[in-house]
Amino acid sequence: MADEPLIYARGLVKRFSRKGAEPFTAVDGIDLDVAAGEAFGFLGPNGAGKSSTMRMIGCVSRPTEGELRILGMDPIRDGARIRSRLGVCPQLDNLDPDLTVRENLTTYARYFGLSREVGRRRAAELLEFVQLADRAEGKVDPLSGGMKRRLTIARALVNEPDLVLLDEPTTGLDPQARHLVWERLYQLKQRGATLVLTTHYMDEAEQLCDRLVVMDGGRIVAEGSPRSLIGQYATAEVVELRFADEVDYSAKLEGIGRLDPLPDRLLLYADDGDGAVSEVHRRGLSPSSVLVRRSTLEDVFLHLTGRTLVD
Amino acid sequence: MAYPMAAAVLERELVLYRRLWQASLLGSFVMPVLFLLSIGVGVGAYVGTVEGVSYLAWIVPGVLASTAFQIGVGESTYPVLGDFKWVRAYHAMRATQVMPSDMVLGRQAYLVFRALIAVTVFLVVAALFGGVQSWWAPAALPVAALLTVAVAAPVTAFAASIENDSYFALLFRFFMIPATLFSGVFFPLQQLPEVLRWLGYASPLWHAVELCRAATLGLPTEWPIAVHVAYLLLCAGVGLALAVWRFWVRLGD
């Protein structure tokens, strides 16, 4: 039991039947193992099947095919028992706008059958944790997007879950608010919580995930730690070149490193970025701008799918 | 297990109700009293007596039942659709131990609570005006509770099935208004030609009005009491089953 993964999936499929159209396959046969204490991520663009997978893990949506076990249990037979040990932070906020910040937590605690006493105590602790204690008696509506998201995260923790599911935890937040959310999630991870999150932000996946899968078109196209994925599918550094004219420079850049021409710039993959730049200049080319940066998961995704993550 | 979770749903409704009880009290109790005074006293002056009692006393059970009816229908339209579409409260509950059946039952319990407050206050006021003439009058309260569920549950199922609130206009126009007009609230159903009487027979409101009238005035019911009760139970039972099913479907994929 101790070694059993919290999430175990083999050949997991989710297909939606649609009126008057071919059924749509959102998740197309994926395998997963998530162990206790891990921070695991699903990375991919919109429509990759991340949220459908999360809803199956959350025991809300039934798998069409394949095997799925959550916390060692069957999500169809033991759905309620599993959900009692999950914390879910959904993509769309569903806080109660007419309740106060504190009541949002205490009311939710009752949905897990917790006593009022326990609900009140946890609400107080969690409001401290997400830095909303001073807003406890206020309404939810005037809170900023970042505060609402932190409150939703606090709410997901009210039952002290074994597994926390976060569907795009920072989508739609401004950079400062995102960092505050990351900080809280990072602290949660330090305390040993098991986190499963979906994101289409590379930096988020790199910051928070020990291990991740890259999803595209309902399938897993790569798996590993952020570093190992970069090592495997990209080079240490990337040079971004822009040229003032619209001439195709691909041929002249041949042989320096792998090239990815994008509409507005050229990506040149090299382990030694500065060396590559010198080579570009040595060949007599004078790009209008040059940027050497560390490789990111964005480059991994681009390499694996030929597309960028956020259109 | 089902009971405490439905109670948690009821508790949320009560916490919300604490915020808006003043406003809702006005609608659910002051309005029927105004109705009673204007129609009961005003129209009553022309009508005199119906079935041997004053017109005011005669319409008390009708207005009482239609108060519960309006709470049952009205509170199961926008609030239910809103908790799916805008607040997404049911989606939040779905991620916990709360099951769709708990959501439906918790909500029905809240509506019964709301209806009972309104009709109890109304009944006391009506008694002060001499509108209650039988010691059986308190029996109107469980009837009002049953009527609330008999209409709220099917309307909840309807609200859980639609995407667009414009369907509610149809519900009000083709269900709520005819049901109020042809349910023996303001005049005996026997005044109508046979064909129109069937509108009343089909309406849960008419059955509840008959039972309430028996309670507050001691008048005999049109059909046997057991038949009226059975019809209301049938509406409630079918409505609850439909509502739970629609909640499952909507919160599934």
Would you spell out the secondary-structure blueprint of this structure?
The complex is a heterodimer of chains A (311) and B (253).
Chain A (H helix, E strand, L loop, with lengths): L6 E12 L2 E14 L4 E5 L6 H8 L7 E6 L8 H5 L2 E4 L11 H10 L5 H14 L15 H12 L6 E5 L7 H16 L3 E6 L2 H7 L2 E6 L2 E6 L1 H8 L3 E6 L16 E3 L4 E5 L2 H10 L6 E6 L2 H9 L6
Helix pairs in contact in A: 3-4, 5-6, 8-10
Chain B lengths: L1 H46 L1 E2 L2 E2 H20 L3 H8 L3 H6 L5 H29 L11 H20 L7 H15 L12 H9 L1 H14 L7 H27 L2
Antiparallel strand pairs in B: 1-2
Helix pairs in contact in B: 1-2, 1-5, 2-5, 2-6, 2-9, 5-6, 5-10, 6-9, 6-10, 9-10
What would your notes on this structure say?
The complex is a heterodimer of chains A (311) and B (253). Chain A is 32% helix and 27% strand. Chain A has 311 residues and is of the alpha/beta class. In chain A, the strands form three sheets. In chain A, strands 5-6-7-3-8-9 form a six-stranded mixed β-sheet, sandwiched between helices. Chain A has a four-stranded antiparallel β-sheet with strand order 11-12-10-13. In chain A, strands 2-1-4 form a three-stranded antiparallel β-sheet, covered by helices on one side. Chain A is globular, with a radius of gyration of 22 Å. Chain B is an all-alpha fold. Chain B has one domain. In chain B, 77% of the residues lie in helices and 2% in strands. Chain B is built from ten helices and two strands. The longest helix of chain B is centred in the first third of the chain and has 46 residues, at 2-47. The two termini of chain B are 24 Å apart. The model of chain B has no long low-confidence stretch (mean pLDDT 93). The A-B interface holds A 16, 55, 58, 60-62, 80, 83-84, 86, 88, 90, 92-99, 103, 107-108, 110-113, 159 and B 1, 4-5, 7-9, 11-12, 15-16, 19, 87-89, 91-99, 251-253.
The number of distinct structural domains of chain A comes to 2
Major sheet strand order of chain A: 5-6-7-3-8-9
Q: Which structural class do the helices and strands of chain B define?
A: mainly alpha
- Number of spatially distinct domains of chain B: 1
Distance between the amino and carboxyl termini of chain B? 24 Å
The main pleated sheet of chain B reads as: 2 strands, antiparallel
Rg estimate of chain A, integer Å: 22 Å
- Tally of DSSP β-strands of chain B: 2
Q: What's the CATH topology name of the largest domain in chain A?
A: Rossmann fold
Low-confidence stretches of chain B: none
